[in-house]
Amino acid sequence: MNDPNGLVFYDNTYHLFYQHFPDSNVWGPMHWGHAISNDLVHWKNQPIALYPDSLGYIFSGSAVIDHQNTSGFQNGNEKAMVSIFTYHDNEKERAGRMDRESQGIAYSNDKGSTWLKYRGNPVLKNKGDKDFRDPKVFWYEGTKKWIMPLAVGDHLEIFSSPNLKDWIKESDFGKNEGSHGGTWECPDLFPLKTADEKEKWVLIQNMDRGSVNGGSGTQYFIGQFDGKTFTNDNESTKVLWLDYGADNYAGVTWFGAPQSRRIFIGWMSNWDDYANLVPTKGWRSAMTIPREILLVNTPDGLRVSQQPVEELKKLREEKMSIKQKTFSDSLSISGTNVLKELDLAFDLSKSESTSLGFTISNSMNEKVTVGYDKTKNEFYIDRTTSGKTEFSKKFAARHSSPFKARDILKIHAFIDNSSIEVFVDDGLIVMTELFFPNEDYFKVALFSKGGSVELLKADIYKLNSIWGAEIK
User: Fold this and answer.
1) What distance in Å separates the CA atoms of residue 114 and residue 172, rounded to the nearest whole number?
2) What is the Cα 107 distance to its own chain's centre?
3) Are 468 and 314 contacting, i.e. CB atoms less than 8 angstroms apart?
4) I need a surface site. Which of 203, 377, 379, 429 has the fewest CB within 10 A?
5) Could you say which DSSP state residue 258 is in?
6) Along the 472 residues of the chain, how does pLDDT read in single tens digits?
């Protein structure tokens, strides 16, 4: 599996479609896999939703609920669920043609259980762009039209439609904005309220290579949208990164989430560096945990923060706490369970430490180090001795984010069998990383180098599996 697709909420159910090749654990002709959840935590796999056809493979896209039946697809009491996706014609690609990608739609009248492709596909043809993909459609009430941000090579194009079938181009964005280290892919455009209730628009823009820590990654922009044009509020050369780890790509948000929540999920791997090489058997790839996207004021201006969704707290089983204390060198907080959630806080104003954080490790001296380097003003994850790394020269690495901590440093982390997701200072900095130890990590230790550190709190939770006893 790879990119999350068609994220949509309907009738108290979260739908997660995704790029999927059912016949191998390496990339092949893309289908849309499908899973559903009532709580964003426990998921139930569903039959494949969309199969390749004569127009091509089913690449990434989105899904909406057509509440006003603008498409005319509704047949019965259920609102039509409409998917909008990219067709990739592999025969045209082999022939060297540039117009290999176009946009198609399909619809469901039974809450996403079964799908019919529109007989008029493709609804948006390609005029000659090699990369012309990943529609992320939403309804814009101001013009009463559907809006389709679409990734086109080195920029974004925005289209509109009254009925999901007939599309016209409205504008371009990004040829001279942000990072262009790779091909732009998987956009998402949505409004968020600031703390003082002002509305801003956030554009998430994934990039297949050349990101901040190598390979694929995700940048974002904050600005204005008037129904036709997106305008960036920041300097055109300013690059804002959604995740400074190596393994969060192609992420987008749910359409229609309740209470106007903006909930994000990403594909947890690195497309350009090693996605088809990671040492797994019988499966390959997973999604990040779902995260709520917020806008926060910082000394540098408005920034996106990410918070693990509140629903994840139901996985907590046992809690171990270390109360306020000062320590030097290391402090063991081990437990035998692999799945853990850490909630840490340090008072740097009362600390001499030049580097602090935590390690997760096993009895084979394989480890991952997560920390803050005060001398370099950076937060980092080091997986150079994490276990299996020989499958890619690019895997064993130390990845970092520019970061100057304030007096109180907060670290919130979720540890799985082969991944870690770290949220620093309430999600202003986020890092997602894979690892493949030869023995499961079970030990956790705090560390402080260069002097003592004042630990304000350390809460460690044992987590249950999301899959239940029958999957273990």
Assistant:
1) 35
2) 25
3) no
4) 377
5) G
6) 999 999 999 999 999 999 999 999 999 999 999 999 999 999 999 999 999 999 999 999 999 999 999 999 999 999 999 999 999 999 999 999 999 999 999 999 999 999 999 999 999 999 999 999 999 999 999 999 999 999 999 999 999 999 999 999 999 999 999 999 999 999 999 999 998 899 999 999 999 999 999 999 999 999 999 999 999 999 999 999 999 999 999 999 999 999 999 999 999 999 999 999 999 998 999 999 999 999 999 999 999 999 999 999 999 999 999 999 999 999 998 777 789 999 999 999 999 999 999 999 999 999 999 999 999 999 999 999 999 999 999 999 999 999 999 999 999 999 999 999 999 999 999 999 999 999 999 999 999 999 999 999 999 999 999 986 443 3
Burial environment of residue 96 by CB neighbours within 10 A (0 to 12, 13 to 18, 19 or more):
exposed
Distance CA 158, CA 167 (A): 10
Query: How many angstroms separate the CA atoms of 144 and 459, rounded?
Result: 48
Contacting residues for 457 by C-beta, under 8 A, at least 6 apart: 321, 322, 323, 324, 343, 344, 345
**What's the CA dihedral at 298, 300, 306, 307 to 10 degrees?**
-20
Kindly report the number of other CB atoms within 10 A of residue 424's CB atom: 22
Q: Which two tokens stand for residue 378?
A: 């950076």
- Which amino acids are annotated catalytic? 3
- For 301, other C-beta atoms within 10 Å of its C-beta total 11
Residue 234 and residue 221 in contact, taking contact as beta carbons nearer than 8 Å: yes
